[in-house]
Structures are given as structure tokens and as C-alpha cells.
Design goal:
Blueprint lengths: L2 H13 L4 H14 L3 E2 L12 E7 L3 E7 L10 E6 L4 E12 L2 E9 L12 E10 L5 E7 L33 E4 L8 H10 L9 E11 L4 E3 L5 E4 L2 H16 L6 E6 L16 H9 L3 H9 L2 E5 L2 E2 L22 E3 L10 H14 L4 E3 L11 H9 L2 E6 L1 E3 L6 E4 L2 H14 L13
Parallel strand pairs: 1-2, 4-13, 4-14, 14-18, 15-19, 16-17
Antiparallel strand pairs: 2-3, 3-13, 5-6, 5-10, 6-9, 7-8, 7-10, 11-12, 12-20, 16-18, 19-20
Helix pairs in contact: 2-4, 4-9, 7-9
Cobalt (II) ion binds next to helix 4.
């Protein structure tokens, strides 16, 4: 795969993944294309033969791994993780309301979304729907309306003269999308809309009873290259589907002769406390099944490294004072190693050194980030995974602007650099991460 093919593939992956559910479905399709076999947590596994496997949880979280030899020998795993979710607007269970001739849908804010960019966008609806079929059986399907069905119009500046100087957004009252014109007597039937979407792929769903759903709004504008030479990529969900894509591509491109594992967690943007989140027991439980012997499992974890990939804050030319003056990651400058003295990032001087060597081996640049002392620092799945299973961890990510906006911006080659560094990590000869003893 070369850089242009990489970008085409990235665009396709993110554009077809408006929600974490779709990201996992598209990840599964990629893994199946490369011969990965499905496992289910509800099955008995026994001792797995060497090969490639994957499993999902909640349809929004995924673990994929390759085993080169019997893991009961305590052979370490090279592990990497990212998150499938992005901040956005989630549709409430009873969404329809009508006011002043318009039908609207109520939404909750999911995660730390930058809300202003959500106004005046052609929005669509996607996610997971639970329904019962004609025989009363419970069914679960993904839907993606793909066409624009909602818009959140701004208030005209003539009605808000302070809009450019002092704008605050009330999440309950200001952020209610319009979906139809409506005479008050005839509000639209939201369940009928969902039935129509389901029936496109499941004709029997035309009469379905909609039971519940996990649906989100998303911007229908696709990813695109921007810049005089196409130097930038702008689009939704680059944080963190760009990293999910790089991890999966590095995994499937590096063959099946090493022990490797990729985890894509949901719910990072809301604190990771869920069955599918990094504070949940998913990874720990899979390691316990791969290494049933506790002693061998600890030997394996002690020799493993976890690369936590999540986008980093590039320096914004208009707001450079928001960065520490000696730590200014640039767009196009390659993956960023993120450190924080208070362990908001899990990197340390040793795991950062290991990652820098993977970048060197791949021939890609890398950079350093630390937050200013007078601004609070974000976090990632890195510290949660490190603390949860006790694995040496490094936090890295491509530099980006406009994090958590409805459209984010990255340099066009930085994801490609991350993929190459991850491929170097996954393809090294030795199985274990040989951390040198400190030499006093
Ligand atoms: Co992120």
C-alpha cells in the first residue's frame, strides 16, 4: 500500500463509518477479507490454534489478534488500541416534538463536542436499531440514512447582535434539529422513518415494531483534501477513526507470524466506563482466555507493549500561544508522542524511546507533545489500559486541528506515517519488548 492508496482507503473507511457501530462493522469486513475468524465470548474456545481471530462486544468495540504459537508458553503480545466513538449528537428515546410549524428531534450531547460547527449543516441519521419481526423475534440492525434529513439553523445575527463576540449555546434549547414542516395535528412518525430505512435491506421490517435505538446525527459532507496541493485532510471523526484504520491496516498487512493484538474501544469520549470501554474488562478477559495460566499470563504481559493511538493537538498558527513553546507538533511532522507528568498519558521515557525507534525503523518523523502547565490535559485509553492490565504503554497520535469539531483537520501524510510506524512495531523480529534494566 502506498500513500495515495492509503488515503483512498482511509476516506472510504471513515465515510462509511458514521457511528462506532458502523466502524466496527467495516473493521470486521476488512478482517474477514484477510482471513480473520470470528470468535464469540459466549462460546468455549479451548486452546486456539495459530491463526487470526476477532471478536466484538456491543457491536461498537472490537479485539483482533494473530497468534503465531501456543500462547500457553507465555509469549508476549504486541498490542495497540484506539477508540471508535466521536463526540456528537445522540437522538433521545422519544425524539419528536413540534413547535411553530416545524417538527424537531431531541438530542443529547455525546462527549466533549465543539458545538458551534453543528449549526447550518446538512445532517443525517445513523446507528443501531432494535426491532421485533413478524414472528416476535428480537432483531438488531444498523441503519444509515445517508441523505440529509436534519438541520440546526443558526439564529440570525440581526436577532443576536452579540453572536460574534459572546456566544454561548444552551444544549437543551438551542440545539434541537429541524426534520420536517409539520401541521401541529400531524407530527411525523419517527418509528415509521426507521421502518422505511430497515426495510431497504430487510423487507420483512416494513411491519416491524421498533423497540429501541442508539442513533446519532452526522454531517453528510464527506472527507476531502484541502490546500493548494491537497496538503490537508478535513472531515468528521478523524479523532479517532484515523487511528482505528491505521491499527487495522498495520495488523492485516503484517502477516500472521507474530503475536499481535488490536483493541478498538467505544465510549472513550465519555470516560470509558462501560462494557465496551477501556475501563471495562474486555481486554483483561480476553487475555485471561488466551493465557489461562496466571503465571504465564503475567510473564506475557510483562514482556508486552501497548501503543495507545489517539490524535494529538497540532499547533494552530492562529493560536500558537495555546501550546508550550518548546512542544509545537506540526501538521505533516509525523506521529506525536504524548507525555504528561500526572499520567493523563501513559507514555514514559522508556516507552517513548521504544516508539521513537519504531518511527526510525519505518523512516518516518516523530514529534513530542506536553500540555502547557496552565491548561488542563486530555486523556486517552492509554492510562486506563496500562493501569487495568499492567502493560507498558506509550500514548501517540497524529497531529490534528479542530479536535472534536464536526470537521477536523490533519496533514495528508501523518496517518500514513503512523501506519508505517505501527507496521514496524508489529513486524519486529523479537516477540518481547526487551526493556533494559536501569544501569545505576
Ligand atoms: Co480521541
Amino acid at each position: 500500500m502506498q500513500a495515495n492508496d492509503y488515503l483512498d482507503d482511509l476516506f472510504s473507511y471513515i465515510d462509511r463509518s458514521p457511528t462506532a457501530y458502523h466502524a466496527v462493522a467495516n473493521s470486521v469486513a476488512l478482517l474477514q477479507d484477510h482471513g480473520f475468524r470470528r470468535l464469540r465470548e459466549t462460546d468455549t474456545w479451548g486452546i486456539l490454534a495459530p491463526g487470526s481471530y476477532y471478536l466484538t462486544r456491543n457491536d461498537s468495540c472490537l479485539i483482533a489478534f494473530t497468534l503465531s504459537r501456543n500462547p500457553q508458553t507465555g509469549t508476549p503480545l504486541r498490542m495497540a488500541g484506539a477508540h471508535t466513538d466521536s463526540p456528537g449528537l445522540k437522538i433521545k428515546p422519544n425524539p419528536i416534538q413540534t413547535r411553530h410549524g416545524c417538527a424537531q428531534i431531541g438530542v443529547e450531547v455525546y462527549g466533549g463536542a465543539l458545538l458551534a460547527p453543528w449549526f447550518d449543516r446538512p445532517l443525517s441519521i445513523a446507528g443501531r436499531v432494535s426491532w421485533s419481526d413478524n414472528d416476535g423475534a428480537l432483531r438488531c440492525s444498523l441503519i444509515d440514512c445517508r441523505r440529509p434529513v436534519a438541520v440546526i439553523p443558526s439564529l440570525a445575527i440581526h436577532l443576536d447582535r452579540e453572536a460574534n463576540d459572546n456566544k454561548s449555546i444552551n444544549k437543551q434549547t438551542d440545539l434541537v434539529p429541524l426534520v420536517a414542516l409539520s401541521a401541529d395535528a400531524m407530527p411525523p412518525d419517527f418509528h415509521a422513518l426507521l421502518r422505511d430505512e430497515l426495510a431497504g435491506r430487510n423487507p420483512e421490517a416494513a411491519q416491524a415494531t421498533i423497540l429501541a435505538f442508539d442513533l446519532f446525527l452526522y454531517d453528510t459532507q464527506l472527507l476531502c483534501r484541502v490546500g493548494l496541493q491537497g496538503e490537508f485532510v478535513t472531515g468528521a471523526r478523524l479523532d479517532n477513526l484515523l487511528s482505528c484504520h491505521a491499527l487495522l491496516q498495520a495488523l492485516v498487512q503484517s502477516g500472521t507470524d507474530r503475536n499481535r493484538l488490536v483493541i478498538l474501544n467505544d465510549h472513550e469520549e465519555v470516560g470509558s466506563m462501560s462494557t465496551a470501554g477501556a475501563q471495562g474488562p474486555f481486554l483483561q478477559s480476553i487475555l485471561e482466555r488466551l493465557y489461562p495460566d496466571a503465571d504465564l499470563r503475567q510473564q506475557a504481559i510483562a514482556g508486552s507493549l501497548f501503543v495507545s493511538a489517539d490524535n494529538a493537538h497540532a499547533v494552530h498558527p492562529n493560536f500558537a500561544a495555546k501550546h508550550d513553546p518548546e512542544h509545537l507538533p506540526r501538521l505533516g511532522g509525523g506521529p506525536v508522542i504524548k507525555t504528561n507528568a500526572n499520567q493523563r498519558y501513559a507514555s514514559n521515557g522508556l516507552t517513548g524511546a521504544l516508539f521513537r525507534r519504531f518511527c526510525d525503523k519505518a523512516g518516518v518523523p516523530c514529534q513530542q507533545f506536553v500540555m502547557r502547565n496552565d491548561l488542563s490535559c486530555g486523556s486517552t485509553i492509554g492510562p486506563l489500559t496500562a493501569a487495568g492490565i499492567g502493560v507498558a504503554t506509550v500514548d501517540v497520535g497524529v497531529p490534528q486541528l479542530a479536535m472534536h469539531s464536526i470537521r477536523e483537520t490533519v496533514g495528508h501524510l501523518d496517518g500514513w506515517y503512523l501506519l508505517r510506524a505501527l507496521a514496524a512495531f508489529f513486524s519486529e523480529e523479537d516477540q518481547g519488548i526487551r526493556c533494559p534494566e536501569v544501569n545505576p
